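MFS transporter structure dump, as promised
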Amino acid sequence: MLQTIRQWFAPAPSIPQKSESEIQTLYPKFRFRVLESTFLGYTTYYLTRNNFSPVSKEIGEALSYSKADIGDILAVTAITYGIGKFLMGALSDRSNPRKFMAVGLFLTAILNFSFGFANHYWIHLFLWGANGLVQGMGWPPCGRSLGHWYSVRERGTTFAFWNIAHNIGGGLVGVVASHSAAQFGWQYAFFVPGIIALLGSVYLYIRLVDTPQSEGLPPVEVYRDDFPPEEKENHEVELSTKQLIVEQVLCNKYIWLFAIINFFVYIIRYSLIDWGPTYLKETKGADLLGGGYSTLILEFGGIGSTILMGWVSDKFDGRRGMVSLLCIIPIFFAFLGILWNPPGNIFIDYILFGLIGLFIYPPVMLLGVAGMDFTSKKAVGTAAGFIGLFGSLGRTAQGKGLAILATNYSWDVALYAILVSTLIAIFLLVFSWNLKPRG
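structure tokens r here:
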């Protein structure tokens, strides 16, 4: 049985290479197809991952969950998502992304339906933890696909454009979840995204493709004459599990640096995604829809800047760390603005949420791309999963930590903790200022 599953998920085999005229015609079409399908697919993943936070206050009121209970659900999801991202990353590097990503979206849809039908804390804790695990099947196959269809010198710009899937999915989920809950009840914040995910799963299975070689096309390095510095002779050699995990990731000091930085970047990012709506409702007078729109503003704030900063990082020879550092600094002052803005001026809070979104999403994207820059394209999923694991640990820390601080002290104390995390991220990014793609 296990062997059958492994064979079904196995990468698509190479087929004889097509003629030069066919290559020139088909390559741009398949590149767009991969970019488009992974973009829409990952956008849909977000609808079934971040739909808990916009309605967590309402779920707590309906089922008598405390802040600690809500924080535990957020924390366990972040932990399982991090573990899933790492494990699924290693699996995705040895799998067909078309099947891998589609199955993950199908599973998360089923778990969303189950969560909506349940009304017991421990069942919710288990289901949302399981959802975090299968959500790890989203990003790694995207990284594998884009890494095989787009070369080193275009990664910053390409991933910057693709990365706005985070913003669109993350922004829409706040509106979809809050409106569904307001119209029909909190359960529909999970039913509606679940239906969309089922449709997205079918779409991915039909539309996404595996490597260029599986379509009779040459590797992208050959097509664009753009080889990684030390991989011109062996850029298509498949790696063993030991090479993927130990040599390319665990013994790679650059991957460790980017992973640790990502821990603090995710504290910053998810503090407003997980707790922003609740914070605005409890301290600034926002209602259910107002809390949902704060997530939309945060996410959409990063669309233009992510594309721009990805392009800038390419123009500065791949110095992703330098660009990330310049983006994190303004975030510190935006959080100070939220802390000092008194109730009754929620419009100012919305502006500051948008400003944080403007500057946080370029580093979120660039740290992942930096990981790709310092590892083999055959280990993209594993490296991304490892960096993502640390990000999820950061989300876990803030999910539980901010709940404790807000409950036992105040929201002001919780915001000071975020400010400290921002300063640590700035300090660590200094060490990545001069780093460029290896070689």
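Residues 155-184 form the longest helix (30 residues).
lmk if u need the other ones
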